[in-house]
Write a structure and sequence with these properties.
By secondary structure, the chain is α+β, with helices and mostly antiparallel strands. The chain is built from 2 helices and 6 strands, in the order βαβββββα. The mean pLDDT is 94.
């Protein structure tokens, strides 16, 4: 299988920190890939909350994850503090992507990079929805580019 590459922007509009919990560690003794997805989800929630938004309700429309790309670059261990940077990219008619960089704060080593594809979703109708105008207003001028 060919290696997947993910280019990231030099700067991100938001960052948050997490400490690796024992529940985040796998049998190899390092941060597990499923825990990385959980960190990304929590970072995305914090990022949206910073703008007064949530995944469940942006003017009556929610968001649903459709795909995820993880590139694991280095190990992280129990007690490590990680910085997760996040930004919005590829804002479209019914969705967008979120880009992430995870680094260990003690030495600046990049642990992982990721991209999640999100689609706007009307949970009451159980259908894909158009990107809410409020989301566009907030993020159209602050999109990160690769």
């Amino acid at each position: 299988m060919a290696r997947v590459k993910l280019d990231l922007p030099k700067t991100f509009p938001f960052a948050t920190e997490f400490q690796v919990r024992i529940d985040d560690v796998n049998y190899g003794g390092h941060l597990a890939n499923d825990a990385v997805l959980t960190l990304l989800h929590e970072a995305r929630l914090r990022f949206l909350n910073d703008f007064g938004l949530s995944e469940r309700d942006i003017d009556g429309i929610g968001m649903i994850l459709t795909n995820a790309l993880l590139i694991l670059k280095a190990e992280a261990f129990h007690w490590d503090v990680l910085s997760v940077e996040i930004g919005v990219a590829d804002l479209g008619r019914t969705g967008c992507d979120f880009l992430y960089r995870i680094t260990r704060t003690k030495d600046g080593i990049e642990v992982a990079r990721a991209r999640t594809g999100m689609v706007f979703f009307d949970y009451s109708r159980r259908k894909v929805a158009r990107t809410p105008a409020r989301f566009k207003e907030i993020f159209a001028s602050a999109l990160v580019s690769e």
